[in-house]
Amino acid sequence: MSTAIERQIKPIYDALDTNSPKSAIVSCNKLLKKYPKSELIKALKALALLRLGKIEDCLVVCDDVLVQKPTDDAVLTALSLVLRGLGRNQELMAMFEEAYKGQPQNEELGQQTFFSNTRAQHWKNAQMTANKLFKQFQNPKYLYWSITSTLMQARDSTTPPEMKTMLYKLAARLISTAPSPSTDSADKFHLHLTILREVDLDEACKHLETPTAQLIYNNNLAVDELRRDIWAKKGMLKEEGDLARTRISENHDRNWLEFKSLLDAAFAPLAGDAEPSEEARSQCTENVEDIREFLENIKREDGRRDRSASLALVDLAHRERKHGLSKNADRLLDLLQDYVKQMGGKATCFEDITRFLDFEGADLERWTAFLQERANVVVSQETPTELMKYINVQKLLRYNLSAITVDSEVDAANALLAQYLAALKLADDLKEGELHPADDLAILAASAFVSAWSLQEGEEKEGNGGLVYLYRAAMVLEYALTRSKHAYSMRLMVIQIHRLLAAPTPALEHYRALRVKQIQNDTLSHMVLSRASAFSLSGSGDLTFLSECIEANQIYVSNTQDTADYTGRAFLLEKYSQIPGFVDFEDQLECSLHREILKVEHTRMRYCHEIISEDVVDLELIELKAGFDRYQHDNRDFDIIPNYQPKGQPSYYKQTRLFSIDQERNWLRTMMDMYVNALTHASNLDDTVEEKLLIGDRQRPNANTTDRPSLRNWPSEPLAELTPAEAALKDFSDALSEWMKPYHDHARPPPAVVLAEAAKQAALKGGQPLKGIDLAPATNGSAKKDPAEAPAVKDAPESLNVFFDDIKVRLAETFPGRKRAEALHIAGLAQEALLFIVIESLRWKNPTNVKTHKFGALVQHLKAIRAHAIAALKAMAADLQKFAQEEDVSQRKLIQEACAPLPLDHDFMLDVAKKVTDSRKKVIEGVAKGMIKLCSNYNNLL
């Protein structure tokens, strides 16, 4: 490239670097008048168009450059960014492979070809490219690239089972003959062991015996973890225990894994035997006594500095008791009491020992008496350490409660709240980011109030009276958050309560205060986005929850664009131990259950906001169908919410779930089935057409999920995961779909006609012609179906009208009990039913379709059903507006009266009550307005 052109192109790079794609496009257009054949300028224009969101224009320019088979580094770099952004990894791979063929001595181009294959997870091609690089440039790292690619190919679910063993053996042979030994680095050794674990455990153990190997695994956690796994599979529990003993005593290693290995080794004689022999039991008893003496020495040495040995002694006694080897029936209880005395001032004390608290009868009475005595000893709470001792005792006492009533839980909550308020003086001047040491007392008080609410029966839990304890729980948590604003666990707890109270605005405010980032969008956003369509005001123009869905979705966009780059960097830096983790991480996010749930929730909200047209149907259909044939990973974190409820009760999370049901795979499959069926009827796409028109690559199957069912094949128990109203919507959708299917199937044009029309449109826009498509069928009359063969129009099922009559009654039944969240849920489902009618009617908006196939009677039936649905929705909207008017000052006063016994500031409680009632009024009114707007939008659809 000449210096003059380089100077002229620089402003384009500057504009792209400063995220000014419009300026970049203007500069590109000017330069293309001077240099109309410049591949680089066109490639940069395609990149600018992509960043501006003009996908169709971007495709036209990108395809124009690709057909020239570019080889220039700058052009390839720009195009690679474009193709990655479009999700066209197959074409990215083909582009680099073509360029590499033209310049086989270009090492950097060879590397880029390799990375493009790893991005597309074409491990076979990657392995062949790495082999070629090794033969050409004799760099040992390329051989390790080849070996790693062979390993990843063996792990791939698309690889036939008979090929996997052969690939592992090939990788083992290659690494054993590599010019640089695997012991050169920890990552190479990790790779070698990973392969040997699949091929030959004996050989893997031999490799671990060398002094160099011992040095590596003693200084590298990844290799040490792999060594543990290999020894466990080989049954080398004794050797593992001996090594752990050495590390604990000589290296002063206090990693809990070492103590666990020590304990596992002690009970190794009993492993795998349902009825162990007396000899095995005797040997195990000797081991236990030896380990106990060793741990007691470590405990004396560590004192209170480290709790590992003390906790290991508790674990040892618990296992001993479980296997019936204990000669001292009181040993476990004595050790637990000692642990509470010694480590009760640590925040982890409760979590450390709850798994050992399975006492009954006299043991439980003795344990409870000890805790009560202990509570009296540390009641002063004059220092944070004393306060933590008191908190841990209260948690342990609460955990073992058996006979609980509403009154006992309310009394406990009031007592805990009083202790919390008294303890606030210990930290009046918290620094930024610090948590108040008394936070857990507030959490315990709120948990007790929630428990009292959950113990109420039936209707007593609903209505203003039944929500008293839920209001108090929310008030306690809201107050505690003013004193400790970074207490994320309390925010998650109060989010759950606000959703139950049908107050989505404060729930969303607390969620945003968490400032979740990156992967937390996948693990935590379900807290506010699960069934968010029930609280969405998108129908009335408020896009808050719709925007939140888009924001949460960014982690999946980032994963698609960036995670594969981490794999490439790991290869470049020879971090082979990280590569399977990056690939699995990409798969976990790509096939996230929450991602698919977000898609459905986003669709449900968006369809209430946008006018549904034929233009969006095809894209929506492709998007929803993509996840059907994949296993979905559930990455949602449900355990992050603290649970201090008695062990016989459901957890705090389960007690405060909206509608008492989570959105799981059967719920997802049911909802996707309904939408996919309806969209399929409205669309002209089939698999053949979709393959031709798809912009990005088709989604690959999961990695390592051959033994797990896809969403399509998931064992079906849909009704167990649906609310009654959702089950009614499913029946409605099924009846509508079954009735409409024959008419859509008959009227849908053949694939050749659809493709020919698409090719025509592409040609009109100046794009490249679609491959293998003949324009002739577009004008070929023989492709049209014979109207005489059209199915006879049948009357609409009566159940379609009955659904709207029934759902009006369902909504009316929620008003006396003040079931606000349920009312919003039912109203949202009624809207969805109307939307299904709209989608099923889209094809018949075109009078030509109706006339050609003689479906005039069908349209009349659809008009009648739509009119009945709109009348029902308008009546429901009027009822909701009346319901919303009740959220006035009197309702705020009821909340204040419910919380009056709490010793909290009156003005503060008034503010919280106002937040709740204002939010409820806004959402109920907004949903009602949205329903009226929806009816107006589709009143004259046909």
TrEMBL record:
Residues 696-717, 770-792 are annotated as: Disordered. GO terms for cellular component: NatB complex. InterPro entries: NAA25_NatB_aux_su, TPR-like_helical_dom_sf. It comes from the Eukaryota. Pfam families: NatB_MDM20. Belongs to the MDM20/NAA25 family. This is Actin cytoskeleton organization protein. The lineage of its organism: Eukaryota, Fungi, Dikarya, Basidiomycota, Agaricomycotina.
